[in-house]
Amino acid sequence: MPVSPSGPQPVAMAFVDAGYLTAAAQSHLKLPIRPRIDGDEMAIWARFAYRRDIDLMRTYVYDAQYPYDADQYPEQRAYFDALAAQPGIRLGARPPSRAVGGVTTGSLATKGVEALLVLDLVRMAQLRAFDIALIIAGDRDLAEALRVEADDDARRVILFSV
Length: 162
Known about the structure:
The protein is an alpha/beta fold. The chain has a single domain, classed as 3-Layer(aba) Sandwich (Rossmann fold). It is 36% helix and 30% strand. It has helices spanning 18-29, 39-49, 73-84, 113-126, 143-151, and strands at residues 3-4, 7-8, 11-17, 55-64, 89-94, 97-100, 103-109, 132-136, 156-160. Strands 5-4-3-8-9 form a 5-stranded parallel beta sheet, with helices on both faces. A two-stranded antiparallel ribbon has the order 1-2. A two-stranded antiparallel sheet has the order 6-7. Strand 1 and strand 2 form a beta hairpin. It starts with a strand and ends with a strand. Mean pLDDT is 81; it is low at 99-107.
């Protein structure tokens, strides 16, 4: 644990399902389009949503990526590049799946985004890279991974939802 003049500070990492966060924010705030994530604002959120005396080491942001040949790809790529260039942000982008149960859908499915989040969460917990995990996600499939981190790896896990 890092030591500060006022004593040890717990180290935190944030793990954010961007698709969930932006869709929920759009719906909750009744916005005409999905908002974009600002890395600086995520750092401010983490410090004030939980507690001010944490050392936020890094924020992992996970999202589905449009295929290279999609019309939306260049704009999304520019957004991802700008987000990933912000200090303390790590971006986990995954090509989306358009097939759900063998049926092609018109919207992006974020299959695999949660898997990337869980892999990083478990890997970093096992390395004891953080004391506190701040997670923004809405998928119940994450429940077992969160329980393991809290119980088996003795990490504090805090789940936020919109």
